[in-house]
Design brief:
heterodimer; A: 255 residues; alpha+beta; Alpha-Beta Plaits; 2 domains; 4-stranded mixed sheet; 3-stranded antiparallel sheet; 11 strands; B: 149 residues; mainly alpha
């Protein structure tokens, strides 16, 4: 190729101008209006990092949390899907362990095994752990689930394609398929409530204070007061998911 | 520039412009603003309606102040109004919309107070077979100020 200096400069200038003009045109096409409806109140998600404590020693298995959750979040009421539920663990005298959660505990529990045969028994409320390294977010093929800056794992209901991969990916079984929305769905820690300064519906509904919610960034918050004092554990710590739901009085049978 | 190189170059430019154009149509607004997700969906979720108003909203001076002050000093003060009375967010915003009446059946009280093996022992429980002769609990007990608690 034999190009004079003049020719080279001409072509070079054309390419630079063309590229600049082209990208400007493309920018103007790409940059559509991004303003969505402003949410109520002023809330700075950098100022918070939410956490949740469940005291299994206090839970009485009334199931009011599971019911309040379904009402607050439009979870299909007659389907066996739950954002939070209560499990009953019964360690029998023959070392057998019976675990059940009829209708997610909403209708309560009946003692269908005589008390004489039970060695020990307790209730364990379950909820999305809002992991710091969430496996469900990692497997989403379209970026429809994510962790917010304040540490809540959410689902984008408009963008989810309903492939159910995240439901398989969650090691805690905390996700379900919402047949009304046709998307995956899960606990949001009542994000619409906590960003308005309210408590999640399940925490508010609990009559015995077995569920505590608060800001991990605030040293005086209700969760930090418990985390500083009690002996706590998380579910399946070996998976490295770094859950932000902490349990007090967790038995080794609980998985 | 040689013509065959020019042609390839033009095709490449068209392909890049085509890719950017199609991508701009497919990728939703606000995607990638904070991370690999649609930033607007955070606001969508924040705008969901609140269904449970909370006990504090019941105790307003012109509303249920009397029963609220009784409940506030009772053994049931840890039980939020809506735990028994149902979600009342709509009612708190518009008093013409009545919440569903509280369930005052024996079985509803039993969700917390029937004897169950898995319940903490120090929690007040009754054996429904021998206590209360199958009467409605509210026949003897005031749920807003229960006895023995």
């Amino acid at each position: 190729m034999n190009v004079s200096r003049r020719e080279f400069t001409k072509i070079g200038c054309r390419i630079i101008i063309g590229a600049a003009a082209g990208s400007a045109v493309i920018e103007s096409i790409v940059a559509k209006g991004t303003a969505s409806q402003d949410p109520p109140g002023d809330y700075d998600w950098n100022a918070h990092y939410w956490g949740y404590v469940i005291d299994t020693r206090k839970c009485i298995g009334c199931g009011r949390c599971a019911k309040a959750c379904k009402l607050e979040n439009n979870v299909p009421f007659d389907e066996p899907v739950y954002r939070t539920w209560v499990e009953r663990y019964r360690v029998l005298k023959g070392e057998d362990v019976k675990i059940d959660s009829p209708n997610g505990s909403i209708d309560g529990f009946d003692d269908d095994i005589p008390a004489e045969e039970v060695k020990k028994a307790f209730y364990v409320p379950k909820i999305c752990n809002h992991c710091d390294t969430p496996p469900c977010v990692q497997v989403c093929p379209v970026g429809a689930t994510y962790e917010t800056k304040d540490g809540v794992v959410l689902v984008d209901y408009d963008y989810c394609i309903g492939c159910r991969y995240c439901i398989q990916g969650c090691p805690y079984g905390a996700r379900y398929f919402n047949t009304e929305r046709k998307t995956a769905d899960k606990c949001t820690w009542c994000y619409h409530r906590i960003t308005r300064g309210l408590l999640p519906a399940c925490v508010q509904a609990c009559p015995v204070g077995a569920r505590v919610f608060g800001d991990l960034k605030d040293p005086e918050s209700a969760v930090n007061k418990i985390l500083d004092k009690e002996r706590i554990n998380v579910l399946k710590p070996d998976l490295g998911t770094k859950p932000k739901v902490y349990y007090v009085g967790l038995d080794r049978e609980v998985k | 520039m040689q013509p065959h190189l020019k042609r390839v170059f033009m095709l490449l430019v068209i392909a890049i412009i085509g890719f950017v154009f199609v991508r701009s149509l497919i990728v939703p607004d606000s995607f990638g603003e904070y991370g690999w997700y649609r930033a607007n969906s955070v606001n969508d979720i924040r705008n969901f309606p609140v269904k449970h108003a909370g006990s504090a909203s019941c105790g307003d001076e012109s509303c249920h102040a009397a029963i609220y002050s009784i409940w506030k000093d009772s053994g049931h003060k840890t039980v939020n109004c809506e735990t028994c009375h149902g979600a009342s967010g709509e009612h708190a915003n518009n008093i013409r919309i009545l919440p569903t009446p509280a369930n005052d059946s024996r079985d509803f009280c039993g969700l917390c107070h029937f004897k169950r093996v898995a319940r903490p022992e120090n929690f007040p429980q009754i054996d429904p077979e021998i206590h209360g002769e199958n009467l409605q609990c509210t026949y003897c007990h005031n749920p807003h100020k229960p006895w023995f608690v």
